[in-house]
């Protein structure tokens, strides 16, 4: 561990570069170990590579089987984490969960185009805007893994801009395998005190922007009869949220959008799934109002709690005893959903919450 490691909220934390390098080393090391064991493991499989050694028939009649395009295929090492040769587009990639997913994709072999507005979105946002420097840092981390990475400044509310990006990426890279719709804003204000922007702009950016992303990029996947689309909802998309009605409504809407898109795009072998993070420490949530709301959700009214106070109030209520997750806790699930192993996963909600989701119906 680096000598510059720090203690934060009760745990030892490496500087970002050291932590990411160490974590990815574990991931890639596991993949290499699995590959080294493949020869021995393969001896137990059938001649077509399947693990099921029983005859695939019923009363002498063969069981129908899916075509290779309709199956995740036989077992092979690393199939849930390897993205070699894939081309991904990630919105909201300048920082937070979007950056973590983009970099995690690169660590697992993908080239990544990072889309972010890198500036002011709306007065209906409690977080400081992302900057061009933030996006440049994401690209730097991608390229550190030896993959192609580039940043594009764009507003997801502008579907024309997204369609131009789709055309450009498809022309230069020859394909688009994966699209992640992550860009979002969050507003904390009581419903009866909202301005028009507090409602309209959150819905327009989060829900309409996600729909724009699907509408702009999915046609490129339809042409190739293959693709992965992953949208970011939230646990706040499964229940009401006091003082954040526009955000909660937008994230509920994204789940309905995801399921509808899965129904429509399945015939083109395109999967559409949603990640539902719990509370994650990002710029979207790292401000005093959010910490106050976090304490309030647990029945404790504190006007301006310190981060440690908020952590100590919330952690005991979460099964894994954490106050909140890190962006890198979410990104591994995005790798699986983008991989060949997730060929039969679509229309699904993947909750990554440290166990907080166990409290929901």
Topology of this protein?
Layout: E1 6-8, E2 11-13, H1 16-36, H2 38-42, E3 57-58, E4 61-62, E5 87-91, H3 96-107, E6 111-116, H4 132-143, E7 149-153, H5 159-173, E8 178-181, H6 196-224, E9 227-232, H7 245-265, E10 270-277, H8 288-297, H9 307-314, H10 327-338, E11 349-352
Helix pairs in contact: 3-4, 3-10, 5-6, 6-7, 8-9
Characterise this structure:
It is built from ten helices and eleven strands. Helix 5 packs parallel to helix 6 (196-224), helix 6 (196-224) runs parallel beside helix 7 (245-265) and helix 8 (288-297) packs parallel to helix 9. The model is unreliable at 1-44 (pLDDT under 50). Strands 7-6-5-8-9-10-11 form a seven-stranded parallel β-sheet, with helices on both faces. The two termini are 41 Å apart. Strand 1 (6-8) and strand 2 (11-13) form a beta hairpin. It has helices spanning 16-36, 38-42, 96-107, 132-143, 159-173, 196-224, 245-265, 288-297, 307-314, 327-338; strands at 6-8, 11-13, 57-58, 61-62, 87-91, 111-116, 149-153, 178-181, 227-232, 270-277, 349-352. It is globular, with a radius of gyration of 21 Å. It is of the alpha/beta class and 361 residues long.
Major β-sheet strand ordering: 7-6-5-8-9-10-11
Average residue pLDDT: 85
How many strands in all? 11
**Amount of beta strand:** 5-15%
- Class by SSE composition: alpha/beta
Name the helix and strand elements from N-terminus to C-terminus, one letter apiece: EEHHEEEHEHEHEHEHEHHHE
Number of helices: 10
Radius of gyration: 21 Å
Distance between the termini: 41 Å
Shape from CA axes? globular
**Unreliable runs, pLDDT <50, ≥5 residues?**
1-44
- Specify the oligomeric state: single chain
Main beta sheet, described? 7 strands, parallel
